[in-house]
Design a protein that fits this description.
- The chain has 280 residues and is an alpha/beta fold.
- The chain contains twelve helices and eight strands.
- Helix 2 crosses helix 3, helix 4 runs antiparallel to helix 5 and helix 4 packs antiparallel against helix 8.
- It is globular.
Length: 280
């Protein structure tokens, strides 16, 4: 079932499927909620809520403040705080007081912000190809260059080229060999406008160091790393092993950054086994 809800002046989109334990899935950028469809198809006993994050898919970007990204201070920024606020609004809209959450990449960054804002609404956190560390200086330089390219080149074509290059570089070699169409499939889920691309890059660059947050997580955590992930390493994710709530850590050697799409059966099996602890 597809639906919409409103948050801070924007109309946002939601996919809802299944029945059972409420689980909220937060997708990576520049993709939309369709990223989770193959995985959700392999889950049972789960009531899956899959929003399109603000500015992605069918969700509006809305009006965003400027100044959060110091490297480009005049850029509007889609911050992790804003997305987390949208997700809390979604929970209220759905009348779901508490849920399990799963996030990939930016989705995982949002989970860390959600833990700061409303830990009482989180039963467990699954991080798939995500990390708590802030952007390294080299990433800040790349994000600044991306914003400059979008502003200089202008138009949707420049953004499409950037997204296609990002997706290809982050998709695992194994997945591209086994399924040569996978990059095209993923690119079909990437529909950011130039304005959204700038806001997302600024928001990612402005995200805080969440390593101190990891030390405060008292609910169970699942961490899944991709052995072929060129963006987030196993070492980056090993930090989750230290959470006070306990962490189940898994490495999928033949998966890249989009592990849940590249290897949906494997990731679904890990999630299915992990969520059994939350069954009433």
């Amino acid at each position: 079932m597809n639906a919409t809800y409103q948050s801070d002046g924007a109309v946002l989109s939601l996919r809802e499927t299944g029945a059972g334990l409420p689980v909220v899935f937060l997708h990576p950028t520049p993709l939309d909620g369709g990223y989770w469809q193959p995985l959700v198809h392999n889950l049972t006993g789960v009531h899956a809520f899959v929003p399109d994050l603000r500015g992605h898919g069918r969700s509006e970007l809305g009006s965003l403040p400027v100044g959060a990204f110091a490297a480009v201070p005049d850029a509007p920024a889609l911050t992790m705080r804003q997305i987390a606020s949208d997700i809390l609004t979604l929970l209220d809209h759905l009348k779901v007081p508490k849920a399990v959450f799963a996030g990939c990449s930016i989705g995982g960054y949002v989970l860390l912000e959600l833990w700061l804002q409303a830990p009482e609404r989180m039963r467990g956190l699954a991080f798939i190809c995500s990390k708590p560390q802030p952007d390294a200086p080299a990433n800040i330089v790349r994000r600044t260059a991306t914003i400059d390219k979008v502003r200089t080149a202008g138009g949707a074509e420049a953004v499409r080229e950037i997204m296609q290059a990002q997706i290809k570089s982050l998709t695992g070699n194994t997945a591209q060999t086994v399924n040569p169409a996978i990059v095209t499939e993923l690119c079909s889920q990437a529909t950011l406008t130039p304005e959204a691309m700038i806001a997302v890059q600024a928001g990612l660059g402005a995200r805080p160091d969440s390593l101190p947050t990891v030390a405060t997580i008292t609910v169970p955590v699942l961490a899944i790393a991709g052995g072929e992930d060129s963006g987030i390493t196993r070492a980056d994710m090993e930090v989750f092993r230290s959470v006070p709530g306990g962490c189940g850590f898994h490495l999928i050697p033949d998966a890249g950054h989009f592990a849940a799409y590249e290897q949906p059966e494997k990731v679904a099996a890990l999630i299915s086994a992990w969520v059994r602890q939350f069954e009433d």
